[in-house]
Structure formats: structure tokens, C-alpha cells
Amino acid sequence: MIFSKNLINWYSNNKRNLPWRTTTNPYYIWLSEIILQQTQVKQGLPYYESFIANYPTVFDLANANENDVLKLWQGLGYYSRARNLHASAKYVATDLNGVFPNTYKDLLRLKGVGDYTASAIASICFNENTAVVDGNVYRVLSRYFGIDTPINSTKGQKEFKALAQELIDKKEPAAFNQAIMEFGAVQCRPKNPQCNICPFKDSCIAFNKNRINQLPVKIKNSKAKKRFFNFLVFVSEDGRTVIEKRKDKGIWQNLYQFPLIETTDEAKTKYIKERINSLELLKDETFELWLYNKDTIVHKLSHQHLHTRFWIVQTKTLALKGISLGEIKNFPVPILIGNFIESFNFE
């Protein structure tokens, strides 16, 4: 098909020089694809390089401590990716003797691997004719073909997958998949696409009908839920503080945080004092309480906005052993707490 050939030709002349494009090693390709989910290349590249340096083989990653994996992932968000990455590495290393599945169907058995990632690995590493569909692909296809079907609907997902599968170059599936993703990332961008120098502008429906900014269509999500977090940062005279590991399932599962009081609205100092007095961290020890950030920090996640305050609790001793202030940076924490730790300058 002319579209596919022209796209691959564009890619050969315009692709960025990225480390995972110099290999077909499934471990490296898998690692890059997991990191780049929900993440731009410029942000993900240093993480990819760090993981390769620290865990050069799937056995190294499988044998790593989960805390170390989460710490290396810190700042990328969507931490379930890191937990799934670690679990899948153990599965490949132990159950498959370090040999990655080599088909789309078998790759789907890896935890955290869905249609897109399985298609990418299968085509790039094993030359399987299975098309990738990610945000970049949705954008390119919806604009070029003028498709109004919402990309986040079941119908849209099926329609775009079928179209991509129809377009894929059967002789060069790896080149086609990488080309269409790259084209969406650097040419057919979400904002300010380079339409005037686009090789497809004469046949692009969105360009010729002035609908670039209208496509792709996406169903709007419901309004994000507001939550109010109050983190208690204990600082004792003997240089200790308290952190705890989140056990509940969720975005921050197995990460560490300061003791948390969640409220239904912005809490008053009096209420926080009353709650602290009920905790076993201090027992009957007196303390001083002050609010570190007078302006509430709003941490925006996909379906919720966390209105966050950090309360400094100064006391002589802690009822619990806690950790030394110097150890705090060794623990994997959400970026929200990591930013606070950097600004508070624990010593």
C-alpha cells in the first residue's frame, strides 16, 4: 500500500536516534515499551538507561529487590508498571529460563503487557505481522482518514486496530509500526503538527477539511475526585522520623509515605493536633505542630486530584523506633513526597 511505503520511507529519513532502535533484544524492547507507556521519550530515556545500567539482563532485574526497582522508577508515575515489570522479569527468568515469549499471543501472558506492547515486541523482535495502536497511531489514522469514532470507546479501539492491521506492511512490520508511532510523535503532533511539510497533506482528510484540531475524538472522562491528604512529618530531637509502607492496592502500592490523615476538606490545625494525640507514634509526648506549605499542593492524577499539606511535628522522642533523617532518601516514595523531601532538606 502506498501509504505504508511512504510512511516507512519518511521514517528512514527522519527517525530519532534512540538506543532501543539499535537492538532487537526482546528484554531491551520490552523494557523501553513499558517505560514509555504514558511517558514521553525525553522523560523516559534516562530511566531506560538507568535500568539497563543497573539490570543489564532479565535475570538481574528478576533478582533485584522490589524496593530498589521502585526507587529507580521514582518520578515516572503509574507505579503498577514497575511492579508488573518486576513480576514479569521473575516469570521470564524462572519459568521460561530467561527466554522471552516470541509471539504476540504468548507475550500477552506477561503481567502488564497488553495489545500494544505485545504487538510492538512481536513485530520489532520477531517480525510478526501485528499492528501497534497507541496514542500516536490513533492520532495519525483519525486525522488522515477523517475518522470520528471516539478512540477511547470499545468500537473505536476495534476499528482503529483493524485499520492499522490492514495497513501494516507485511514485509516490514517492525519498520511500519515504528514509523507510524514516530510520525505521530514528531510530525503529526497533538498540538502544532507540521502539516505544511507533511508528505501526506494532499490526501489527509483532516488537513484538507480543516479538522486537525478536532481529531482524534475522545469521550471526556468524569470530573476528577478531590481528596485531601495531610502528611505528618515527624522530626525528633534525636534526628528521627517515621515513614510507612502503603499496603493497600492502588497507584502507590508498596511505596513509602509519611503517616497520612485523609480528610473530607482542608483540615484545621486544631483537628490535626487532636488526631496526632490519638496516634501511638507519640503517646503522651508533647509536640509542636506547624504547616510546612501554606499553599496547598494539588497533585493531579488521571481520576483524582490530591490536595496535599505537609505538617511538621517536632518532638523530643518518638514512641516508635522510626528511621534516621539521613535514611529517608533511600526509600521509594511517590514523586509528590519525593519533591517535599528535596525541598525540606532532611539531614
TrEMBL record:
Catalytic activity: Hydrolyzes free adenine bases from 7,8-dihydro-8-oxoguanine:adenine mismatched double-stranded DNA, leaving an apurinic site
Enzyme Commission code: 3.2.2.31
Record's keyword terms, sorted: 4Fe-4S, DNA damage, DNA repair, Glycosidase, Hydrolase, Iron, Iron-sulfur, Metal-binding
Molecular function in Gene Ontology: 4 iron, 4 sulfur cluster binding; 8-oxo-7,8-dihydroguanine DNA N-glycosylase activity; adenine/guanine mispair binding; metal ion binding; oxidized purine DNA binding; purine-specific mismatch base pair DNA N-glycosylase activity
Pfam family membership, one: HhH-GPD
The protein's enzyme class: hydrolase
Domain HhH-GPD, residue spans: 35-186
Entries under InterPro entries matching the protein: A/G_AdeGlyc_MutY, DNA_glycosylase, Endonuclease3_FeS-loop_motif, HhH-GPD_domain, HhH_base_excis_C, HhH_motif, MIG/MutY, MutY_C
Binding note for cofactor: Binds 1 [4Fe-4S] cluster.
One example of a Gene Ontology biological process annotation: base-excision repair
Cofactor section: [4Fe-4S] cluster
Family: Belongs to the Nth/MutY family.
Function statement: Adenine glycosylase active on G-A mispairs. MutY also corrects error-prone DNA synthesis past GO lesions which are due to the oxidatively damaged form of guanine: 7,8-dihydro-8-oxoguanine (8-oxo-dGTP).
Name of this protein: Adenine DNA glycosylase
Organism this protein belongs to: Algibacter mikhailovii
Lineage, uppermost ranks: Bacteria, Pseudomonadati, Bacteroidota, Flavobacteriia, Flavobacteriales
